[in-house]
Amino acid sequence: MRVPIIPAIPRPGLLGIYDLRLALFEPDIPQNAGALLRLAACLGAEVDLIEPCGFLFDDRRLRRAALDYAALVAVRRHASWGAFLAERDPRSRLVLLTTGGTIPLYRFRFAAGDTLLLGRESAGVPPFVHDAAFARIVIPLQPAARSLNVALAGALALGEALRQTGGFAPG
């Protein structure tokens, strides 16, 4: 089932605050998860952490990458993919970043309320996650390049989504 587009609603002084979400599917590398927590804190996005993770949530490498920004981000932990689906806002479109995507990042039209879904560093996401996505987008790379680091891909996609929806904080 396709979820309708949720229009961006400008809110002076609160732009970007929790309109867009980052969802991390079973992350393997604590440093990348920490960098994404820091990114979300700095840009005003909530994070959904879909477990199991390949590390303990209190891992020192996660804390080191997130620094003190982890305290500034709202993180919802979900025990499984099924729990994530049951607990998420059904109006939020799932936008999967994948090397197998069919829509280039710069051609996709983001909406406020989208959830940007990032896969595991080691294996991406399984077919049932692909099937649940509203859209599968790809960041075009040079022909010899396979993929970006998941934190870099998340930063590019969140930045583009915030640009399109007017969600960057004024400044």
Outline the fold blueprint.
Elements (H helix, E strand, L loop, with lengths): L20 E5 L4 H14 L2 E5 L9 H7 L8 E4 L2 H7 L6 E4 L5 E2 L10 E4 L8 H6 L2 E4 L11 H16 L6
Parallel strand pairs: 1-2, 1-6, 2-3, 4-6, 4-7, 5-7
Helix pairs in contact: 1-2, 1-5
Describe this structure in words.
The chain is of the alpha/beta class and 171 residues long. The protein has one domain (21-165): SPOUT methyltransferase, trefoil knot domain (Alpha/beta knot, 3-Layer(aba) Sandwich). The protein contains 5 helices and 7 strands; from the N terminus they run βαβαβαβββαβα. A 7-stranded parallel beta sheet has the order 3-2-1-6-4-7-5. Helix 2 (60-66) links the parallel strand 2 (46-50) and strand 3. The longest helix has 16 residues, at 150-165. The radius of gyration is 15 Å and the shape is globular. Residues 1-17 have low confidence and may be disordered.
Name of the CATH first level = Alpha Beta
Q: Roughly how many Å is the radius of gyration?
A: 15 Å
Instruction: Give the N-terminus to C-terminus distance in angstroms.
Output: 38 Å
Task: Estimate what percentage of residues fall within beta strands.
Answer: 15-25%
Strand order, main sheet: write it out.
Answer: 3-2-1-6-4-7-5
Mean pLDDT, to the nearest integer, reads 85
Major pleated sheet: 7 strands, parallel
General shape? globular
Précis, in short:
The protein has helices spanning 30-43, 60-66, 81-87, 127-132, 150-165, and strands spanning 21-25, 46-50, 75-78, 94-97, 103-104, 115-118, 135-138. The chain has 171 residues and is α/β, with parallel strands linked by helices.
